[in-house]
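Late entry, written up from scratch paper. The run itself happened at the end of the previous shift, but nothing got recorded in the book at the time, so transcribing now.
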Amino acid sequence: MGNLLRILLAILLPPVGVFFTVGLGGQFWLNILLTILGYIPGIVHAVWIIARRNR
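Output as recorded:
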């Protein structure tokens, strides 16, 4: 259930989904940059981080 919530957060606010998965690391700041440059790249990166982290 936690992954579903993180993915929904990643779709609405990608940096929040990444923050709840990895914290304030490099992936979080990269996701903020990607979200600023384009919303879709931020979503793709966030979902990828969440899926990769929970194998």
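The radius of gyration is 10 Å.
(Scratch paper discarded after transcription.)
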